[in-house]
Design a protein that fits this description.
This protein is about 55% helix and about 10% strand. By secondary structure, the chain is an alpha+beta fold.
């Protein structure tokens, strides 16, 4: 079976499992009646032994389904031009590290726009997946096609931005040379006007993104001709369990990080508040949605706590009182801090 056929078979199996499940794992509850059970006590207390089993020792939790049936790995490599250049003169004068000069400044600079478009591809993949290894991400197989569609769209936008930059490269370089000359004149440092280190049109044309997918081998289907021993197979299984366990912790850590930011924002007293940003709550809904899609862990506490964050974000979504009422802000902060404290017991 070739790689594409393996992927399609795995996706079909995962979707069949979801279809037969009594609960949709990717959809937030529409109302309280549909709401998931929320662990309002930490997952490792005595009233929840089924949630604390794998915290009682150093071994990762065994997976109910093989990791290969739930996820694939995706490697993404991006090549872009730098948006700064090494200042050899200032580096020598500083004598305590490298000094760089920012180039192609300005949000409307076409090279900068193109570079940021390419960087957005990797940022999108990282935001919707969990780590597998350095430079490699693990993608929930049910979300694979959606994530790849998103990547292709972003890559197309980056390629279009690159084309626009290369088409106008002469004007871009001339404008940048003039800007650097202005800085050189203002600072009395003529070397800053040296444009010989600026990227060329060929450098910009070479910017690219490479994406490759690799299924995760199922330990039960390892080719017997490899002659793996039982101990070697067991070691591989333990590593897969560890990957899945760490993936669940990553999802929770991402939620905690966003919750900390929201909590800090809500800690500002109303009297000192210059402007209220709806993203204080919107970011909670966003990270919960992304991590729900990225989660491939079989640990029920991971899913339950992400669901709890979905419900919490929904509770305060559109609450205008948070912009001017101190009691409302304090209450929201207490709710966020309480859930965040419970989540910290999972990482």
């Amino acid at each position: 079976m070739n790689m594409q056929a393996q992927l399609q078979a795995a996706i079909a199996a995962a979707e069949e499992t979801l279809d037969s499940s009594p609960r949709n794992l990717s959809t937030a509850p529409a109302n309280d009646a549909d709401a998931p059970t929320i662990p309002w006590s930490t997952p490792d207390v005595d009233d929840a032994p089924h949630l604390r089993a794998h915290y009682d020792d150093d071994q990762p939790a065994p997976q109910l389904k093989s990791l290969g049936s739930k996820a694939v790995t995706v490697q993404l490599s991006t090549s872009t031009v730098g948006l700064s250049k090494l200042d050899h003169v200032e580096t020598a004068n500083y004598a305590a590290g490298n000094v760089h000069t920012h180039i192609f400044k300005g949000s409307d600079n076409l090279v900068r726009i193109a570079v940021n478009k390419y960087r957005a591809v990797g940022a999108y993949l990282n935001a919707h997946t969990v780590p597998w290894d350095k430079g490699v991400r693990m993608v929930n197989i049910v979300k694979y096609q959606d994530i790849m569609a998103g990547l292709r769209q972003l890559i197309a936008e980056a390629e279009a931005a690159k084309y626009e930059a290369t088409r106008n490269m002469g004007a871009i370089l001339a404008e940048e040379a003039q800007r650097l000359q202005g800085i050189a004149h203002a600072t009395g440092k003529p070397h800053i006007a040296d444009v010989s280190k600026l990227p060329t049109v060929e450098d910009v044309e070479a910017m690219s993104v490479q994406v490759s997918m690799m299924p995760i081998p199922d330990p039960d289907n390892v080719d017997p001709r490899l002659g793996n021993t039982e101990a070697e197979t067991a070691d591989y299984v333990n590593k897969l369990n560890e990957k899945a366990d760490n993936a669940g912790k990553h999802c929770i850590s991402e939620c905690i990080s966003t919750m900390e930011q929201s909590s800090n924002s809500l800690s500002v007293p109303v009297g000192d508040l210059k402007r209220y940003h709806k993203s204080v709550i919107g970011n909670l809904a966003d990270v919960a949605s992304r991590m729900d899609g990225a989660n491939i862990s079989d640990d029920p506490a991971v899913k339950q706590n992400i669901d709890a964050l979905v419900k919490l974000a929904d509770k305060y979504d559109g609450d205008d009182m948070l912009s001017h009422n101190q009691t409302a802000r304090d209450t929201a902060k207490l709710d966020i801090d309480a859930l965040m404290s419970r989540m910290q017991g999972l990482v």
